[in-house]
Design brief:
Blueprint lengths: L1 H28 L4 H12 L12 H48 L5 E4 L3 H12 L4 E5 L2 H6 L7 E3 L5 H6 L7 E4 L4 H25 L1
Parallel strand pairs: 1-2, 1-4, 2-3
């Protein structure tokens, strides 16, 4: 990350340098005012091909060639750094998610709290006070991330979905608290959890 941060600073610095060099160069070589010099620098660096303010002489043409070649190299470097940044950011998020899911997978005898509204937050606070291991499920990821919960203490998702409950370790949990504002949704979650428990018992006896 330190290496990437250095590349980002370097890329930004090079962009500023090439921009300043172009403005100053056009002002001196072609005797332009600051606005025209900036205009010439912009159309040269971006290679958009608009009409020049004045026809360049041989000295100006050499400067323009150097500026174009330099800007192409620098812009290429900037694009590569930006691509590396987004890839690294995505990879970091994926790595953090894998670590989080790994911790959740190891949970046993924990309490699952479905919904992080007022009741859900109170339940989580009580569980924390009694040093009980718990996991909160809520659709609102921003709400979860802005809370004081540890990353492995919450899971963004729909508690009504069996897959989400399975990810939360419903088959290894000892308690389930449904704190959603909709009673129908709370009932559905309870039924899903019961179905999962019955299936677990059935699988246990079938394996014997």
């Amino acid at each position: 990350m330190k290496s990437l941060r250095f590349k980002i600073i370097l890329a930004m610095s090079l962009m500023v340098i090439i921009l300043l060099a172009g403005v100053v160069g056009f002002k001196i070589i072609m005797d332009l005012n600051w606005i025209d010099a900036f205009y010439m620098t912009a159309i040269t660096i971006t290679t958009v091909g608009y009409r020049e303010v004045v026809m360049p002489n041989d000295e100006a043409k050499v400067f323009i060639i150097i500026l174009i070649l330099s800007s192409v190299i620098i812009l290429g470097f900037v694009v590569s750094v930006a691509t590396e940044y987004f890839i690294s950011f995505s990879s970091l998020n994926d790595l953090q998610l894998k670590r989080k899911l790994k911790k959740i997978k190891k949970m046993e005898n924990h309490t699952i709290v479905c919904g992080f509204g007022r009741n859900g937050q109170q339940a989580a606070q009580k569980l924390r006070e009694y040093h009980e291991e718990f996991l909160v499920i809520d659709k609102n990821q921003d709400l979860l991330e802005q809370s004081d919960l540890e990353s492995h203490q919450y899971l963004a998702g729909n508690a009504n979905e069996d897959e989400t409950l399975q990810t939360a370790g419903i088959d290894k949990a000892k308690n389930l608290i449904t704190a959603l504002p909709n009673d129908a949704e709370n009932l559905f979650i309870v039924l899903s959890a019961r179905s999962s428990a019955q299936q677990q018992i059935k699988n246990y006896f079938e394996s014997k």
